[in-house]
Write a structure and sequence with these properties.
By secondary structure, the protein is mainly α. The chain is 72% helix and 0% strand.
């Protein structure tokens, strides 16, 4: 639960910082200030660091729901180190901060390893064909198909935004405000699906643990 909540906090902090910066840094000179750099680090750095929580969530999902041995757990510290490295690279200027819209996509690309790690933890498992046939003897049997689909779509669903953005800018005729509204609405839906599906997984683990303690 803490990892899931932290992931959503990263999303929220990034979006809040980006929205605030859009409103208050409207000139070229303002983009060369320390205040903008700080807000830029919060916005882009949280996207880069989100890989830490995604990887840790994937590690827990593999422990409870994954096929034993199919996906390596690896050391716990790997994902925090990876997330910290990417956030530090962001703060030190290795992710540009000359074109903020491009920077956020570059930071998003760094989520590639943790995203596919997450999806593989559930995707490689054989699931009960129906809830009626599920034995409810493991947390796996408590995870419903609709939430698994929501999990897959929510985590991979932001990938199309990278090619969509330049295509919309070049060919759609939409204003930048319209494009930003569309893409951020898309983000809101995908992040919401992530949150709902992760909550369902947490409830499945809690329900199974309560059942085990009673038995």
């Amino acid at each position: 639960r803490m990892y899931s909540a932290s992931l959503l906090v990263c999303y929220g902090a990034s979006t809040l910082a980006g929205g605030w910066a859009h409103q208050h840094f409207t000139t070229v000179d303002s983009l060369n200030t320390t205040k903008f750099w700080a807000m830029w680090c919060v916005c882009v750095g949280n996207v880069a660091f989100a890989s830490c929580y995604m990887g840790l969530i994937g590690r827990e999902v593999q422990r409870y729901f994954g096929v034993p041995g199919a996906i390596p757990l690896g050391p716990w510290w790997f994902w925090p180190v990876f997330g910290t490295y990417m956030a530090a690279a962001c703060a030190l200027g290795y992710i540009s901060f000359k074109r903020p819209a491009c920077d956020i996509f570059i930071a998003g690309i760094t989520q590639f390893p943790s995203t596919f790690y997450l999806m593989a933890t559930l995707g490689l498992r054989r699931w009960p064909k129906s809830s009626a046939s599920a034995s409810k003897e493991s947390p796996i049997d408590l995870v419903r198909l609709s939430y698994r689909i929501m999990f897959y779509v929510g985590f991979i669903g932001n990938a199309p935004l990278l090619p969509m953005y330049p295509l919309l800018v070049q060919y759609s005729g939409m204003t930048m405000a319209g494009i930003n509204t569309l893409l951020h609405s898309w983000l809101m839906i995908m992040w919401g699906m992530q949150g709902i599906s992760l909550l369902h997984l947490c409830k499945a683990m809690s329900s199974y643990e309560r059942k085990e303690s009673r038995d």
